[in-house]
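User: Just a sanity check before I run the rest of the batch. Below are the structure tokens for the first item. I only need the designed sequence back.
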């Protein structure tokens, strides 16, 4: 897997989420994603960006264009150094929220992605590449 280009963006405020949504849309268009796939990745990025801010205390997202020899992809890695997720399976369960949300963001982002991983150590933050 080769990284063809990458950029990192801060996630501190709602304005940053708007900028990330715009950058993800632009990147997806440049990669030739159709409207449905553009919307899927923009929606997933919004949910993960919101979680990074609300639960992770802010962080970063790295947007990378990757290639595996056959085809290109768009990889998004959200990272924070907040409290971490105690139980990842539970966090992914639709309807589970520790805040005031609907508990649908993480599971939704996973379903909207072709590949999805989360790693988190309590006390060391959360990293979810989408
Ligand atoms: N970056 C993170 N750091 C710590 N905990 C997190 C992080 N992201 C998600 N979580 C935990 O996982 C739970 C589920 O996240 P999810 O996005 O599915 O739901 P929500 O944010 O609570 O509600 P919604 O996204 O539907 O508005 C959160 O309530 C929170 O406890
Ligand atoms: Mg959420």
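Assistant: Here's the designed sequence for the first item:
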């Amino acid at each position: 897997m080769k990284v063809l280009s990458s950029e990192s963006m801060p996630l501190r405020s709602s304005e940053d989420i708007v900028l990330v949504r715009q950058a993800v849309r632009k990147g997806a268009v440049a990669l030739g994603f159709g409207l449905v796939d553009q919307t899927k990745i923009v929606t997933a990025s919004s949910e993960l960006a919101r979680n990074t801010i609300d639960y992770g205390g802010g962080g970063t997202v790295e947007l990378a264009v990757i290639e595996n020899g056959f085809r290109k992809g768009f990889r998004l890695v959200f990272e924070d150094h907040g409290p971490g997720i105690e139980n990842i399976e539970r966090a992914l369960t639709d309807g589970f929220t520790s805040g005031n949300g609907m508990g649908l963001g993480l599971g939704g982002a996973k379903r909207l992605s072709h590949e999805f991983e989360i790693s988190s150590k309590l006390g060391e933050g959360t990293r979810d590449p989408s």
